[in-house]
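Need a sequence for this fold. Nothing fancy.
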């Protein structure tokens, strides 16, 4: 590491290079089509996802569980922040299942849930007791403004667990913050301490995304990774208000994989992509804000 120079790290196996890939339906192509046989396969496919989640529950994530429950005991709001599909929802549901009181889950990916909270957000949230989970909170950043007075209400009988796939600095339209009222818990993919040393080769080859790590075959792993990359570029990034073309960001992401663990050089990447340094910095900040890459801050030494 060079003093004073940021270093980039790309999530995934070694340095995952997302391809243009196939459509999300290609995750299990045998379940796509028409006819009785394919209809049966669709039923079997529906059973695969809960089984995968059940296996996730068997992975020891006790450190994350302890960190989250500690945050909920110390602040009115705890936030689980991490990339999509790293297991935030599974972790939140595990906490809700053992919560010693009522629990309510709002999945903001569901249109009806967003409509209900858009109409009467304060009434709905004030009326909740116990644990309240707000999943994919970056879809409705205006809720932060609603949560602030609720957190300050001494009659409050609830704590809030918010799950986000984008850093709060990247979310547009946050006019009020929860400074002093919220604690953060960073959620990454599976780590070696969670899967165990005897599975280190599988973790190294497949990465820590739960569905990638638990894929039934290498081919299924590859399809999942391609579908994940395409969904992220074509749906998730525009959902954050970004106007960066998916093709340009995908190309930058692939190039970043080749710079994994190296000193950041925006000028070199800009020349390779025929883009300005400003654009390259914006691409990097966007991927970092969505937890797809991690930028290690530079190390400085005061010699004076």
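Here you go.
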């Amino acid at each position: 590491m060079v003093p004073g120079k940021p270093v980039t790290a790309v999530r995934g196996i070694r340095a995952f290079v997302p391809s243009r890939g196939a459509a999300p339906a290609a995750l299990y192509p045998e379940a796509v089509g028409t006819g009785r046989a394919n209809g049966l396969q669709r039923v079997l496919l529906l059973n695969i996802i809960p089984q995968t989640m059940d296996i996730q529950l068997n992975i020891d994530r006790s450190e994350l569980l302890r960190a989250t429950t500690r945050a909920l005991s110390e602040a009115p709001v705890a936030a689980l922040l991490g990339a999509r599909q790293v297991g935030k929802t599974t972790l939140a549901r595990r906490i809700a299942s053992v919560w010693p009181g009522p629990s309510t889950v709002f999945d903001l990916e569901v249109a009806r849930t967003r409509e209900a909270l858009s109409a009467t957000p304060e009434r709905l949230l004030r009326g909740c007791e116990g644990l309240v989970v707000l999943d994919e909170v970056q879809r409705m950043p205006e809720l932060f403004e609603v949560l602030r007075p609720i957190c300050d209400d001494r009659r409050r009988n609830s704590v809030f667990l918010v799950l986000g796939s984008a850093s709060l600095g990247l979310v547009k339209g946050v006019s009020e913050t929860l400074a002093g009222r919220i604690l953060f818990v960073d959620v990454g993919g599976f780590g070696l301490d969670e899967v165990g040393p005897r599975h280190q080769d599988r973790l190294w080859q497949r990465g820590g995304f739960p569905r990638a790590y638990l894929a039934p075959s290498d081919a299924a792993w590859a399809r999942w990774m391609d579908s994940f990359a395409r969904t992220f570029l074509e749906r998730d990034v525009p959902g954050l208000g970004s106007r960066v073309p998916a093709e340009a960001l995908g190309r930058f992401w692939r190039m970043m994989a080749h710079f994994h663990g190296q000193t950041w050089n925006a000028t070199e990447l800009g020349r390779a992509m025929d883009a300005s340094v400003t654009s390259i910095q914006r691409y990097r900040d966007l991927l970092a804000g969505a937890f797809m890459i991690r930028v290690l801050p530079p190390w400085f030494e005061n010699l004076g």
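For context: The first strand starts at residue 7 and ends at 10.
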